[in-house]
Write a structure and sequence with these properties.
The chain is α+β, with helices and mostly antiparallel strands. The protein has 2 domains: 122 residues, D-amino Acid Aminotransferase, Chain A, domain 1 (2-Layer Sandwich); 155 residues, D-amino Acid Aminotransferase, Chain A, domain 2. Helices cover 31% and strands 28% of the residues. The protein is globular. Helix 6 packs across helix 8. The chain contains 8 helices and 15 strands. Strand 1 and strand 2 form a beta hairpin. Strands 7, 8, 9, 10, 11, 12, 13, 14 and 15 form a 9-stranded mixed sheet that branches. The protein has a 6-stranded antiparallel sheet with strand order 2-1-6-5-3-4. It binds N-(5'-phosphopyridoxyl)-D-alanine. N-(5'-phosphopyridoxyl)-D-alanine binds next to helix 6 and strand 13.
């Protein structure tokens, strides 16, 4: 434990076959993740249950996306789904405690003998699994809604890969922080893409609109979920290009991510969104989200029992 951070949560983490304290986990500097950002990651939300257990939400979908991200950068998946599930459950058991959490998974191409851009032959991927504590947005912040700012999306055109090369996203998150905003909503060529670490949704004339899946955005695990929730709530949904003018004129704007669930944006670039309060489509989706969690946790409990 770092003596300067004695009060900081020091979870037991998995690194390349070993379990130990985060503060003691080390990787060699020639790891391709460190040198090139050559790797992918996942963030799986965990919810504390009444009995104290923490359960993952939509784990199958997260593992499927991890497999897709690895395939897109040509790293062989080091585990099958059962292997990943076993690691995640061990991370949960090894870090038992109160409150919601998330599991962070990172896989890099591994450690090379020397620095060189092209893939080195015969190296083994680096695998890291960590549980972190998380606080989902409070009821008070949900009731008020959040502030967002916009900026030009200057990232590469493989945003569909959940890459650890996050410099563009980091700069956008910092832009939000410097504007006292929760998120930066990005636009590319006058069209909505996504947040620095979230998908973005607008409501226009009662229809929920989301930017098209494809290389310009990461398809959040909540993308498909929100489609399902909209159908359940009887809200028309269209996956299509959303213009900057539509974003600015929207009745509602909201973001979704593992750590925000679905969160209303009530101020955009200093102007009120719609009536400046969280809207009815947000409220219906948020309620449906909570029901989806309850259903999935009931199913997990019945499978376990
Ligand atoms: N980010 N788009 C980007 C660029 C993201 O980084 C994320 C999630 C999403 C939403 O994906 P999901 O619904 O699967 O969380 C969209 C995670 C939470 C992160 O980087 O911490």
């Amino acid at each position: 434990m770092n003596p300067n951070h004695a009060d900081v949560f020091d979870p037991t983490v998995y690194l390349n076959g070993e379990w130990g304290p985060l503060s003691e986990a080390r990787i060699p500097v020639l790891d391709r993740g460190f040198i090139f950002g050559d790797g992918v990651y996942e963030v799986v939300p965990l919810y504390a249950q009444a009995g104290g257990a923490r359960l993952p939400f939509r784990l199958a979908q997260h593992l499927a996306r991890l497999n897709r991200s690895l395939g897109k950068i040509r790293i062989d998946n080091p585990f099958d789904d059962a292997g990943w599930r076993a690691l995640i459950h061990r991370a949960i058991e090894a870090n038992a405690g109160p409150g919601d959490a998330l599991v962070y998974i990172q896989v890099t191409r591994g450690v090379a003998a020397k620095r060189g851009h092209a893939f080195p032959a015969g190296i083994t991927p680096t695998v890291f699994v960590m549980l972190s504590q998380v606080a989902y947005p409070s009821d008070a912040s949900r009731a008020q809604g959040a502030v967002a700012v916009t900026a030009e999306d200057k990232r590469w055109l493989h945003c569909d890969i959940k890459s650890i090369s996050l410099l563009g996203n980091v700069l956008m998150a910092q832009h939000a922080a410097e504007h006292d905003a929760l998120e930066t909503i990005q636009l590319r060529d006058g069209l909505l893409t996504e947040g620095s670490s979230s998908n973005v949704w607008i409501v226009a004339g009662g229809t929920l609109l989301g930017a098209p899946r494809g290389p310009r955005i990461l398809e959040g695990i909540r993308y498909g979920l929100i489609e399902e929730l909209a159908a359940e709530a009887g809200i028309p949904f269209e996956e299509r290009d959303v213009t900057e003018a539509e974003l600015r004129a929207a009745d509602e704007v909201m973001i979704s991510s593992a750590t925000k669930e679905v969160m209303p944006i009530t101020t955009l670039d200093g102007k009120r969104v719609g009536g400046g309060r969280p809207g009815p489509v947000y409220a219906a989706l948020y309620d449906a989200y909570q029901r989806a969690k309850a259903r999935e946790f009931a199913n997990q409990a019945s499978r376990a029992g």
